[in-house]
Amino acid sequence: MRAFISVDLEGLPYVTSPLHLRPGTPLYDEAREIATEVVNIAAEVLYSNGFDEITVADSHGPMVNVIPSKLPEYVELVRGYPRPISMVSGVEGSDVALFLGYHAKSGTGRASFDHTYSSATIDWIKVNGVEVSEFLLNAYVLGKKGIPVVLVAGDRVLLEGDVKVHAPWAVRVPLKDSISRYSSKSPSMAQVRARLTAGITEASIKFSEGEMKSLTTEEPVNVEIRFLGSHMADTAELLPFAERLDGKRVAFQVETVEDAYRVIQLLSVAAYGTSSLVG
Ligand SMILES: [Zn+2]
């Protein structure tokens, strides 16, 4: 069996400061070590539960965070950006998916680094009227492929919100309790290992007993995005099928949820580009 892991940084234990999040910042190496250790724990436990092939999608920022030399031989690594379905690229052929280090959507209070895909451009995203987190949109894309998200590990406020509401079958493993956007309380790494071991074992059993489900949304898909600036919506409006709703909002309809994901990425990058161009 093949398991797919998508790993973000903001929902990982001890990752609390913007200084953790970008290559070149002073705490970035610490965050890389944490990400690699958490991925390795999950991979070991998956392997011992019968998942002999594991694909890890490095899914934060430039997506080169996990340290390849420290991975076991049965793990393959998807690195780098851009890529077609961003945080879930490389999922094809997997039986199950796990999300590690995931965080709450933009606008969530007392949530580590609350944002939705891009804290530089996006205020919120609605898919078929539902405001999505990265967890939810990624799960919709996998759901269309028939791949269930069996476990989410990350900020407790995400787990108790979107994960519990939309995918109650998925095992939830809290890695941090957020105190504010830039502060959180996390258990020891030994406890993280214990929680992930118990969680992945439970998820494997539930999967083998047919209790896991694919999360889907209706197609064609209606998307609405509110940007952080009106110049970003000005840019998004250049897309012929985008409709301008007001200063910061655009809406569009596409045939599939995967296309929605692609257009959201494109508009976010375009919005970022406009900000860079105009200074
Ligand atoms: Zn991230």
List the helices and strands and how they pair.
Layout: E1 2-7, H1 28-48, E2 53-58, E3 75-78, E4 96-102, E5 122-127, E6 130-131, H2 134-144, E7 149-155, H3 156-166, E8 171-180, E9 183-185, H4 189-208, E10 221-227, H5 230-236, E11 243-244, E12 249-254, H6 257-278
Bound molecules: zinc ion.
Zinc ion is lined by residues 8-10, 60.
Description:
The chain is of the alpha/beta class and 279 residues long. The chain has 2 domains: 2-118 and 131-208, Dipeptide transport protein (Rossmann fold, 3-Layer(aba) Sandwich); 221-278, Dipeptide transport protein (Gyrase A, domain 2), CATH 3.30.1360.130. 33% of the residues lie in helices and 24% in strands. It has 6 helices and 12 strands. The chain has helices spanning 28-48, 134-144, 156-166, 189-208, 230-236, 257-278, and strands at 2-7, 53-58, 75-78, 96-102, 122-127, 130-131, 149-155, 171-180, 183-185, 221-227, 243-244, 249-254. It has a 7-stranded mixed β-sheet, sandwiched between helices. A 5-stranded antiparallel β-sheet has the order 6-5-10-12-11. Strand 5 and strand 6 form a beta hairpin. Helix 1 runs parallel beside helix 4 and helix 5 crosses helix 6. The protein is globular and about 50 Å long. The relative contact order is 0.15. The mean pLDDT is 98. It binds zinc ion (ZN). Zinc ion is lined by residues 8-10, 60.
